[in-house]
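Weekly puzzle thread! Below is a chain. First person to post its structure in token form gets bragging rights.
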Amino acid sequence: MKSAVETLSPTRAKLTVEVPFEELKPSLDAAYQKIAKQINVPGFRRGKVPPQVIDRQVGRGLVLDEAVNDVLPKAYVEALQENNLTPLAQPEIEVTKFEDNKGLEFTAEVDVKPEIDLPSYEGLTASVDDVEVSDEDVAEQVDALRQRFGTLIDVERPVQDGDFVVIDLVARHDGEVVEGAEISGFSYQVGKGGMVDGLDEALVGMSVDEEKVFTTQLVSGDLVGQDVEVSVKVTQVQEQELPELDDDFAQEASEFDTLDELRADVRERLVRGKRLEQAAAARDAVLEALLEKVEVPLPETMVTEELNARRASLEQQLQFSGLTLEKYLEDEKQTQEEFEADLERRVRDAVAAQFLLDEIADKEEMGVDQGELTQYMIRRAQQSGQDPQEFVNHMFEHNHVPDLIQEIRRGKALQLLVEGAEVKDGSGNVVELKNLQADGSIGEPQEEADEAADEAPEAAAEETTEA
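Winning reply:
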């Protein structure tokens, strides 16, 4: 077999491959054997039909096509290896010449891993914001804990913002009830959002047994974007009575004796979370500093695929949250054009970072042992709420393990970058990055996490989320 490569761009190559007919013979023999097992010919046992009989029965062309389909992927892989190319996607293959007894010629265009002139990645510098926790931040967390210990009491007055109501609701389109849009006895906090647009405005001022009709648009389902009439009836109105903020509340809601002790613990937790956020920002800033030092050629098909994947993911999240893209952009204070430009910039940076980290991992000869792979898969399973064994089985069954190994190698490369960098906060202090894990993720060291779990009051632990 002979092969040659033509560089179409820094990220795309064209292979020209010639396979002599004698190298097709194993695939040709396999094709005859396969077809012999599929046809019935009087006078011959299944699987024992001679080649010349098969040629008369089904035609030599069918056999040749079968042989070509068998040899093409093998010849393509061999040509990649001969020319030291790393493909990034499926190739576009075109058979340019194939004649019986003369051989096969084909071309394959494919996106390939670009060659990168790797800059020095030692001693990178970056800056991040200070860790700041305000009194307002602490008060917000304490107030959230306070609300968990509040009690609901019935009130005989019109609905106010923040009240808890029980409602019956039905949506109609052209007089017909919309499927899945009829509920009774539904508990809802006014002003919380997450239902249909206009519901909060309609509820404010309503009294028990009062019914109101308003028009809105659905954000999901078959009638998305179309006007529907929503009828809502209030059957109960309650307001939340909160406990006094004093030492008695601290003793009821936590293991602390005083409110000051509770506030101090909340502040400590917030600081810990902010430090994790700062470490993540430092990691990203170091990687961005490296990206600024080198131009990485990017395969446009890869960028397009990632853009489409991220758009689809956002669309799914918005649909689950009951939001439209227009509402999301309004909340983010972005135009459609600004959103698309920002998304493309982030995708291009992410793809470039992958190539850079892969290059560093190769240069540093970073490997992944079985223990590292196992721990990574367990962590991934926990993050996605899946059973670890089921997750592991799925990864092996669908051949995703090589992807996981590459993710770990990139994480190690990123860890190497960060360990060799100097990151300072806004006050000029060097940021400690001991929370960076071997896979590049950010998390509390196990000793600190265990200590925090042992010290945490159960109620506050439920309220504080990890960064």
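Puzzle host: Confirmed. Bonus trivia for everyone else. Residues 151-241 form a domain with the Chitinase A; domain 3 fold (CATH 3.10.50.40).
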